[in-house]
Amino acid sequence: MNPPVTAALLLAAGRGTRFGADRPKQYLPLLGRPVLRHAAEALLAEGLVTLLQPVCPAGEEAEISAMLAGLPHLPPVVGGATRQDSVRNGLEALGPHAPQVVLVHDSARPVVPAGTIPRLLAALQTHPGAIPAQPVADTLKRGAGGMITETVPRAGLFRAQTPQAFRYDALLAAHRAMTEEGTDDASILEAQGLAVALVDGSETNIKITFPEDLDRVEAMLMSRLVPRVGTGFDVHRTEVGRKMILCGIDVPCDFGLEGHSDADVGIHALCDAIYGALAEGDIGTWFPPSQMTWKDADSAQFLVHAADRVAARGGVLANVDVTLMCERPRIGPHRDAMEQRLAALLGVPRGRVSVKATTTERLGFTGRGEGIACQAAATVLLPFA
Fold first, then answer.
1. Nearest one of 87, 67, 116, 123 to 7, comparing CA atoms
2. Percent of the chain residues past pLDDT 70, beyond the cut
3. Owning domain of residue 244
């Protein structure tokens, strides 16, 4: 029987390579969510890790907590001057929780392949530490001054990955006894004469160091998603004396729309399209018009919720398309502002949002100016289930 895992250190303290508006790589967006969030969810995915202990730079505790919202984690611990100091700070903070096993994971590794953690735990039954590793496949050269000085035999060489797993007491004691800087936590146990096992790693356990690494991981994760399409339709009567709010924009008009909330027919139809793609009901399911909480509410919050539901399902919003049907007001002059506003609320690039308008050639209730209708479609990419 595998020993229970009660904690995993999630290291975000190391600054390392920065790119993307000078943001630490572990904070950059990956399919709409921070790399660190993906790493945390990957640790928890198989149900063997029950508690996360994030370690981060001073002053970034609130940001880390927000990234981990809804996941089982302790308050972030401030890291030290070196990676080794950061790990030791995290281990000391775990003391009151008496973990039997601890994983140490680099938050710049957003993918923990299935089976990695079970293999590590199995190895801990007979060893105080274990790491996932991949055999070195490339020919290794030592060089100086732009010239090869030696070909290094690669037999018996491995590339170390994380998470690395340890019996908690053994790792903490090794850290406390270590006087030199180790290259990773396995090396700290090695320095104390303790055996560390190797288990099979994976080529998909990619550490994001350079911009192309982020692109590679995103492409890999996208290949695991399947498209889901949802449609939405909504109608609101016109009403004199109310603001005309369409697709999140206050449109100058001598009338508005009747409704329990701000009656934004564009956002309402779009929410239904997204909820439909998720098979999670409609806008009335989440925000019932019978509840006074939503009286005259800004519909922007409904759309943000719909986008959050996509993220919560591990999905990506591929595109949305909105068609407003009315004789008045004219939509064309406000189309750009509408697309920008919807993209901002959804947290997607502007190029994934389309807003169009049409008339009904003065036919029907829209042609008579009695109301405005909207049709919307959304494509969501979700993990296959």
1. 87
2. 96
3. 225-383
